[in-house]
Amino acid sequence: MLTSRMMDEHGIPRRELAHLVQDGILIKKDRGLYVVKGYTEDPFIYGAYHYSKGVYDLDAAMSIHGFTNVSLPLDMAFPQGTNTTQIHNPWIKPFTVNPLRYKNGVRKKRTPLKTYMCTYDLPTTLIHLIMRKNDIDPSKIKRWFNQYLSVYPSDELYRIGKLLRCESKLIHYLSQIQDHQ
């Protein structure tokens, strides 16, 4: 993936970009966004390119972390006050969150197709899942928590739960999934 800004930064004139498109070497996907012929579509790329304030969360983040397959639309968090009604992209499911939740745990992560996107780290994503539990299949959440806890200790979950002011919800949720095992 190339952007016209990237080309400018490397001193490549815009007319050269036009020649590369005309010669079939590059394909123009959107305004200022180009891909090499034969590029495999990455559904994460358009959201990251068009919505710089967006952070992949919930199901989308879990697929970036390798816990599930990509399912569209991709959940994308925006800071409260962002006008998400202007987002008319069938690949993106926007929602707004409070500033505390929005800014904590954001990481650049490589997607399965090797592009970098902003997403939340894995423990933060798991906390967000129980905060918005009604939006996601509970059996998926339980499976993801069990996968996480089979590899990592729960300390980081408790730290983030406390930071995001949902520690009691986390304690309740973890006791529920442990009772059903």
List keywords for this structure.
181 residues, three-stranded antiparallel beta sheet, alpha+beta, elongated, three-stranded mixed beta sheet
Please explain how this structure is put together.
- The mean pLDDT is 88.
- Strand 2 and strand 3 (33-36) form a beta hairpin.
- The chain has helices at 4-9, 14-22, 43-50, 58-64, 99-103, 122-131, 138-151, 155-163, 167-179, and strands at 2-3, 26-30, 33-36, 55-56, 74-79, 92-97, 106-110, 116-120.
- The strands form 3 sheets. The protein has a 3-stranded antiparallel beta sheet. A 3-stranded mixed beta sheet has the order 4-5-6. It has a two-stranded antiparallel ribbon with strand order 7-8.
- The protein contains 9 helices and 8 strands.
- With 181 residues, the chain is α+β, with helices and mostly antiparallel strands.
- The termini are far apart.
- Helix 4 packs antiparallel against helix 6 and helix 6 runs antiparallel to helix 7.
Give the overall shape, derived from the CA principal axes.
elongated
The unreliable regions are none
Order of helices and strands: EHHEEHEHEEHEEHHHH
How many helices? The count is 9
First-to-last CA distance: 45 Å
Helix/sheet category: alpha+beta
The amount of beta strand, in percent, is: 15-25%
How many strand units?
8
The largest β sheet comes out as: 3 strands, antiparallel
Look at the structure and give the mean pLDDT.
Answer: 88
| Helix-residue proportion | 40-55%
Main sheet strand line-up: 1-3-2
Helix and strand topology:
Layout: E1 2-3, H1 4-9, H2 14-22, E2 26-30, E3 33-36, H3 43-50, E4 55-56, H4 58-64, E5 74-79, E6 92-97, H5 99-103, E7 106-110, E8 116-120, H6 122-131, H7 138-151, H8 155-163, H9 167-179
Helix pairs in contact: 4-6, 6-7, 6-8, 8-9
